[in-house]
Amino acid sequence: MTTAGHLRRFGVTGRGLVVLLPYLWLLLFFVVPFVIVLKISFSDIDLAIPPYKPLLEWVGKNSLAIKLNFNNYAFLFTDRLYLNAFLNSIKVAFISTVLCFLIGYPMAYGIARAQASTRNILLLLVILPFWTSLLLRVYAWIGLLKANGVINNILIWLGIVHEPVTMLYTPFAMYVGIVYSYLPFFILPMYANLEKMDWQLLEAAEDLGCRPWQAFYKITLPLSRNGILAGSMLVFIPAVGEFVIPALLGGPNALMIGRVLWDEFFSNRAWPVASAVAILLLILLVPFMMWYQSVQSRESAGAR
Amino acid sequence: MNYRSSYFILTCLGFGFAFLYIPILSMVVFSFNASKLVTVWDAANSPTLKWYYALLNNEEILDAAWISLKVAVINASGSVILGTLAGFGLARFSRFRGRFTLNAMTTAPLVMPEVITGLSLLLLFVALEQLIGWPAGRGITTMTIGHMTFSMAYVTVIVNSRLATFDTALEEAAMDLGARPLKVFFVITLPIIFPAILSGWLLAFTLSWDDLVISSFTSGPGSSTLPMVVFSKVRLGVSPEINVLATITITVVTMMIVGVSLWMARMAKLDNIAQR
Predict the structure, then answer these.
(1) Tens-place pLDDT, residues B11-27
(2) Is the pLDDT reported for residue A71 higher than 90?
(3) Domains of chain A (ranges plus CATH)?
(4) DSSP-H helix ranges across A41-115
(5) Which of A75, A274, B30, B206 is the most exposed place for a label (fewest CB within 10 A)?
(6) Does this complex have an ipTM over 0.90?
(7) pTM for this entry
(8) What residues of chain B, 228 to 267, have a C-beta less than 8 Å from chain A?
(9) Does B4 touch chain A (CB under 8 A)?
C-alpha cells in the first residue's frame, strides 16, 4: 500500500490536508481569541501586566475556584453612556447604509448599463479610492471641512456665508466620512448583482405598456434585492464598530461603540470592560453576519 | 447605453464620482502648497516641493514605512497561500467535515469590525505568552499574524469565485490522462487562476499596508507602522507632509491599478486570439 493508502486508514486524505492548514490557522487565530475575550470579560481589572485578574484561583490545597465577575456587564447595562453609544452606533450605521444605497444604487446601475469599454473605466474609477488608504481619504475630509478648510474658503470667497460654517467635529462630518469610505463597498456587490440582470425583461415590460419608473420598481428593484442586501450588510456591519472615522471627524459627542472600546482599552486600560463591550457588540452583529452569509449563499446558488 | 440613456443616472454618476474624487484631488493639490496651514493657499510661494523634501527626510515616517512594507509583503505572501488553499477547498470539495465552519470563518473577517478582531488577537497573544512563552512581547510577528488572519479571508473569496467560473473539464481531462491531483493543480489550475491569485496578493498587501486598528492592537514598542504614525499626526489636525504622503500613495496605486488592468486586458485579448 502506498503512503497515501496508509494515511487514508487514519482518515487523513489529501483533500483533508488541503483545508487543514487554513482551518487550523483560523481556528487558532480567529475563533479561539473570541473565547479568550469572553473569558476576560468575566474577570476583574487589576493593576498588573496584563491588567486583569485570572479566572481560576487555587483556594487551599485541593480546590479550584472559578470567579466569574459579572460586574463588567452590569456596569455596561447601568451606565447610560454605553447604551447610548450602542444605540448611536446602530443609528449612524443605519443612516449611512441608507445614504450609501441612495447614492450607490444609481451609480452601480449606471455602470451596469454602460458599454463594455466605459464600464471597465468606471469600475476602475470606483475601485481606485478603495485601494487608497482609508486613513488618508478620511484625512482629506479634515482638510475640506475644517474652519479654514477648502469648503469654507470657497463659501466665504463666493460670499454665501460670512463666517466659517462649523462642519468638522460634528455628526455631519462623521456621516460624510462613513458614507464616503463605504460607498465603494456598496457599489461593487450592487454592480455584481445588476450586471447579471436580464435587461430584456425591461424591454418586454415597455412593450407591454409599462412606464420606465414602474418597470424599475416592479422588475429591477426586486430582482436586485440580494445585491442590495449584500451591499447594505457590507456597509452596516463594519460601520457599527467603526473607530477611525468617528475619532478623526466626529466630535467628542460622536459616541460610537468602536471608539468606546478603543478608549476603554487604550486610555483606561480597562481590558475586562473593553472585552465585555466587544462581546456585546459581537452578539449584536452576529445575526446580521448570518443574514449576510445566507444572502451570499442564495446569490451563488442562484448563479449556478 | 443600450436602453434609453437616463439623465438622472448620468447626473448621479457625475455627482457620485465627483464626491469620490474631490477629496483626493484636493489633497494632491494642497501637497504643493507652501503654507504650513495646508488649506490656505500661499500664492506667493506655491507651488513648491518643499514638503516633499521634508517627507523624504522624515526618519519617523521612513522607518514606519519600512516596517509596514515588511509586514505587508510577508502578510500578502502568507495570505495567498492560506487563502488559495481555503478557496480551492471550498470551491472544489463539495462536502467535507468542517466545511460549514471553514466557510463561516472565511466570511466573518470580511464584515467584522476591526476593533473586535484587533482586541481578540491581542488578548490571544497575551494569553499565549503567559501559557507557553511565545510570542514574547508584541511586534512585527504578532502584527503579521493578525494581518494574515483577516487578509486570507479576502484571498479565499477571490480564489473561490474565480474557481467557481472555471471550467473543470480541463482538470478532469488532465486526470483522465493520468495526472495526480497535485500535479493537475500546479500544472493546470494554478497558471490559469494566476491573475486572481495576483490580485489577491495585491489586495492583501494593500489591506496590510493601510491597516490601522489591528496594527495598533497587535504592535509592540518600536514597531509602529505607517498608518499608526499618520494617525497620531492627523489626530492633531492637518499636516502638509501627510498631504505629500497621500499624493505619493495615490500616484503609486493609480499606476499599479492602471498597469495591472492594461496587463489583464492584454491577457484577455491574447486568450481570445488563441481560442479562435
Answers:
(1) 888 999 999 999 999 88
(2) no
(3) 79-303 (1.10.3720.10)
(4) 71-78, 80-113
(5) A75
(6) no
(7) 0.86
(8) 230-231, 234-235, 237-238, 242-243, 245-246, 249-250, 253-254, 256-258, 261, 265
(9) yes
